[in-house]
C-alpha cells in the first residue's frame, strides 16, 4: 500500500506521541522530522524510524516528498510555522490551540484558502468516534432535553515553560480550556447569549485556573473549568430531564456512561481500541487531502475561528495578553 508521507516540525513532547501514532498506522509513513538542532532531529528519526532528519523547519517544508506537515511547536509559534508551510504549498495539521488569537487564525485560514492548500487543527477530540456516540445518545432522547453541560480539564503543568511564559502563548485556556470549549461547542453548539468567567493568574500574567459559564439563547448552560495547577477528574457530563451522560474523559473519551434520572447506570459505551487516539485526526487529514479539500469535515475552519474568538473574548475580560497583541480592555486590572 502506498503510504502517506508525514513530516513533523518540532521534536518535543507531543511529537513523540505523533511518531508513535504513525508507527501504528499502516497507511502513514514516518517520513521526515525537523528540529532546530540537527542532532535532536537525527536522534528522534533514529528512535522512530523516520527517513529524513532536518536541522531547520524550512528544510522540511521544502522537501517535495512531504505530503502533510504536523506542527508541534508552542502556541506562539504556530502562526509563523503554519504560514511558512502554507507559503510553500504544504498541507498542515497544526496542534491546538490553533494560534494565539482569532486574527492569526483568520490570516492562516485566508492563506490556505487563497492557495487551495489543506489546513487543519489537531484538536484530536473533534475527530474521535466518541463524538458520534454522544450525538446518538442525545438524539435518541434517552436523557430527555439536555439543559446543563459541565466539562473539567486540569493538569498540574504550570512548571512547563510553554504554560507559564507569555512569549510562548502560555496559560490554562489555550492549553486545557480549549478542550472544554470544544466539548461545549460540539455538544451544545454556538448559539451563545453570554459568557461569564473568572481566572486566577500566574506572576507572569498567564491564566492558571479558569472558570467559564456559557449561557445559550435557548436556556441551556455550559460550565467549564480548567487549571494548570491541579489534577482533576477530566469528566464531561451532559444532563437532561430524563438522565445524563458521563464522558470519561474529555481529553480522550474512551468510556461513555448513560444514567437515568434515578442515577441507575443504563449502559456503558466503550470506544474502539486505539493506537494513541491521534490516528483519527491523521486519517481525516489524509482523506481530505486526497479528496482535494482544504479543511476536514470534523473541524472546519469556521469552527476553529469560533473557538479562537471565544478565547479572545475571555482573555480580553481577564487582561491576559501575549507579547505583540494590542492592549485589550481588562475588567480585572
Ligand atoms: N493533543 C494533545 O494531546 C497535546 C498534548 C500536549 C501538547 N499539545 C500541543 O502540542 C504543542 C507542543 O506542545 P509540547 O508539549 O510538545 O511542547 P514541547 O515539549 O515544549 O515541544 C515543543 C517543541 O517546539 C519546538 N520549539 C521551537 N521553538 C521553540 C521555542 N522558542 N521554545 C520552545 N520550543 C520550541 C521545540 O522543538 P525542537 O527543539 O525540536 O525544534 C520543542 O521541543 C502545543 O501546541 C501544545 O498545546 C497537544
Describe the structure.
This protein is of the alpha/beta class and 333 residues long. The chain is built from 10 helices and 14 strands. The longest helix has 18 residues. The C terminus is likely disordered.
- Distance linking N and C termini: 58 Å
Fraction of residues in H or I helices: 25-40%
CATH superfamily of the largest domain: Dihydrodipicolinate Reductase, domain 2
The neighbouring-strand order within the major sheet is 8-9-10-7-11-12-13-14
Unreliable residue runs: 328-333
Shape: globular
Radius of gyration: 20 Å
Q: What is the CATH topology of the largest domain? A: Dihydrodipicolinate Reductase, domain 2
Q: How many β-strands, per DSSP?
A: 14
**Broad structural category:** alpha/beta
Count, helices: 10
Helix and strand element order: EHEHEHEHEHEHEHHEEEEEEEHH
